[in-house]
Amino acid sequence: MLKKRIIFSLLFSEGYFNLSRNFRLQKIGDIDWLLNNYNFSNVSRSIDELIVLDVTRGEREPNKFIEAINKISEGVFIPISLGGGIKSFDEAKTYFESGADKIIMNSSLATNPQLIDEISSIYGSQSIVAYLDIKKEGEEYFLYINNGSEKVQVDIKEFILNLINKNIGELVINSMDKDGTGMDFLYETIELLPSTIEIPVMISGGAGNYNHLFSALSDKRVDAVVTANLLNFVGDGLINARKEILANGVNLAVWD
User: Fold this and answer.
1) Is 133 a catalytic residue?
2) Phi-psi category of 205—alpha, beta or left, where left has phi over 0 and alpha has psi -120 to 50?
3) Which residue has the higher pLDDT, 252 or 240?
4) Residue of 170, 171, 199, 204 lying closest to 187 (CA atoms)
5) pTM: predicted TM-score of the whole model, two decimal places
6) What is the CATH number of domain 5-247?
7) What average pLDDT does the segment 223-241 reach?
8) Tens of pLDDT along 80-98?
9) Can you name the residues that pair with 245 across neighbouring β-strands?
10) Is 84 exposed, middle or buried (0-12, 13-18, 19+ CB in 10 A)?
11) Burial of 31 (C-beta count, 10 Å sphere; 0-12/13-18/19+)
12) Average pLDDT, whole number, for the chain?
């Protein structure tokens, strides 16, 4: 049986790391702040993987992003997934050459789906994480791209079904409605998935405390949880959460 995972996500924009609430960014600090004040190298010992996304709204500065990644990876010894603005094979290649174990694909899943095959043919399907930003409007769910600014006119269930039959290794379902609220995950989004799915499913958007992580990881449909809330899990928050989750029988990896 595959181990369940706790994954932390960092949001990078214009040289700074940010909090996000319903996709509105709040600047927190630069890479030095993250490493020194947040003690990120210590926090990283309580997570299984790290996601770092360049969520810059305007023109991206990839050199600044890669520079921050290089500083993070010096003290982090877990798999890292990188994403943000991947529209071509060369952009994905740059992320892999910068140390990414996996890349995060979002907008291009809808705008350039053939890119999935192009990347997977070289790096393998296990290296591609499909990251879906989903918003509930009335009783319906919609897919959004371009940092949550553009609605895609597709049948969301059909889109997901087609997507999981492509060469992707993992799927993240992110609730825009719960993003940054700390009010728990939106489990309804998992019901958009087919009853049987052979790739790992991660849920994101809404984690605010230990109970949220524990409940999600106890759900047989969920293989991993993703949280980007720096302040809710400051200090020993993630460390203690992992200990409690393990103590309550969730199948997480145990390290010496």
Assistant:
1) yes
2) left
3) 252
4) 204
5) 0.95
6) 3.20.20.70
7) 81
8) 999 999 999 999 999 999 9
9) none
10) buried
11) buried
12) 93
Helix (H, G, I), strand (E, B) or coil at 184: coil
- Per-residue pLDDT for 102 more than 70? yes
Query: In the block, which residue shows the tokens 């959004």?
Result: 144
Cβ–Cβ contacts within 10 Å for residue 113, how many?
Answer: 14
Structure tokens at 150: 């553009």
Q: Are strands 128-137 and 170-175 parallel, antiparallel or unpaired?
A: parallel
In sequence order, what are the beta bridge partners of 253?
Answer: none
- CB of 83 closer than 8 Å to CB of 100: no
- How far CA 237 is from CA of 44, 51, 229, 230, 232, in Å, comes to 12, 18, 11, 10, 7
How far from 28 is each of 70, 85, 148, 190, 212, CA to CA, in Å? Answer: 19, 22, 20, 31, 23
Q: If you search the block for the tokens 């992580």, which residue do you land on?
A: 213
Q: How far apart are CA 139 and CA 69, in angstroms?
A: 39
Instruction: Spot the catalytic one: 133, 179, 184, 223.
Output: 133
Q: Domain locations in the chain?
A: 5-247
- Give the per-residue pLDDT at 149: 95
* Amino acid code (one letter) for 50: L
CA 137 – CA 152 distance, rounded (Å): 13
Residues 38-67: b if buried by 16+ CB within 10 A, e if exposed: bebeebbebbbbbbbbbbbeeebeeebbbe
CA distances from 25 to 19, 28, 56, 81, 152 (A): 6, 9, 10, 21, 22
Token code pair at residue 12 = 């990078």
Tokens of 178: 């719960």
Dist CA 209 CA 221 (whole Å): 20
* Token reading at 29: 């600090």
Tell which residue, 221, 226, 235, 193, has the closest CA to residue 207: 226
